[in-house]
Amino acid sequence: MKFSIKTKIVLAFFIVALLNGAFVFGYxxxxxxxxxxxxxxxxxxxxxxxxxxLIEEIVALYPDEGAITALIRTEAETQGIQMTxxxxxxxxxxxxxEHREGSALxxxxxxxxxxxxxIYLIDFQYPDWYEQVKPMKxxxxxxxxxxxxxxxxxxxxxxxxxxxxxxxxxxxxxxxHFQNMKLxxxxxxxxxxGELMKDFAEMGQRLETSHNEQVDMIAAVSHDIKxxxxxxxxxxxxxxxxxxxxxxxxxxxxxIIHRKAKDxxxxxxxxxxxxxxxxxxxxxxxxRVHVRSFIQSICTEYEEELQAHQARLEWTCQVxxxxxxELDMKKIRRVFANIVHNALVYVSPPVHLRLSCELEDGSLxxxxxxxGEGVPDEELERIFDKxxxxxxxxxxxxGGSGLGLATCKxxxxxxxxxxxxxxxxxxxLGIYFTLPL
Length: 437
Known about the structure:
With 437 residues, the protein is α+β, with helices and mostly antiparallel strands. The protein has three domains: 5-131, Beta-Lactamase (2-Layer Sandwich); 192-278, Signal transduction histidine kinase, dimerisation/phosphotransfer (DHp) domain (Helix Hairpins), CATH 1.10.287.130; 287-436, Histidine kinase-like ATPase, C-terminal domain (Heat Shock Protein 90, 2-Layer Sandwich). It is built from nine helices and eleven strands. It has helices spanning 5-61, 65-79, 129-174, 192-241, 247-278, 291-301, 303-308, 329-346, 404-414, and strands spanning 82-87, 92-95, 105-114, 117-127, 287-290, 311-317, 324-327, 351-360, 363-370, 419-423, 429-436. A five-stranded mixed sheet has the order 6-8-9-11-10. It starts with a helix and ends with a strand. It comes from Paenibacillus thiaminolyticus. It catalyses: ATP + protein L-histidine = ADP + protein N-phospho-L-histidine.
């Protein structure tokens, strides 16, 4: 059977109260009561011995009634009891100053005999020890009642301050959605419940941010693929629908279609890398690479593409000939591809690119600069955020996927390096990253 926390708390406190009450009552009933009975029996025995001794003293004083009266009053004051001595006809011979009748007294009578003949009758009145213990029993019942009431009060307190807030939080979590981020007033509490609500609110904000990123990504995929795809469809329709196109024109169309297809391929690669980063599946397979040869191959690879975009690349490598570095060539080539592509998208012709590499503090340091308008200083760190794009007005080609530089950062950091952006002397954007040797 499944119990709610409310039921568990009520049952727990009820059981605790019941056990405490049973313990107190049992302690009184089976321990204190027995002790009381033993004590009462001992007192009764002592009283019997005392009465026998007193009778012997009265016999010794007989028939001096004045002496007997003095003895009775002295003993009554000393023992805290009341006594009355009468003859066989009921006439009072001696008595204490006070003689009471009531249920709060234990009474017993003794006969004074001299040589077997009854002379006096003594009436003894003792305080009733059981009656004296009654207030203790009442106090015990009061303690039990207070305990029960305290438990009931505590249950109501926990119900209103613990169970009810948790129930509200549970209900809110079940009905949570991004269009309703309003939290109950519980988050104003300065205790664990309030902290829990604050943590849940922060989690909701993170989920909303993630949700918005997913929506933006879907919109980016749709827009960035639709643009080149529309161009491809248009040129294919021209090629298939026109019989007057010259061979030179067809070659131009094929070249454009190929370039647009490569743009789509680049977008797919960006989103694939994004998926790897999101699922933390970006794997690095390093190999020992000769630095100067690797940098030269990178620059040679982009010569033809850069010329087609009215761009030129200047590069310098101040690294000794014998220096090697451990890296994943495919991933680092992707880093260079993303940086070059970013420059070609955001820099208007003629494009001037400058690449340099050197050794510093046991790391290979590479900087890449362009002559574009650059990025505002307050946005330099944000360009490495996923799906971040600068002002579309700064892009001559509608911008990229917003994942290129984020992918670069992920790949560089996976190698144990670091990357940052800066405004370079040419006025454009500079990208600086390091790779440990």
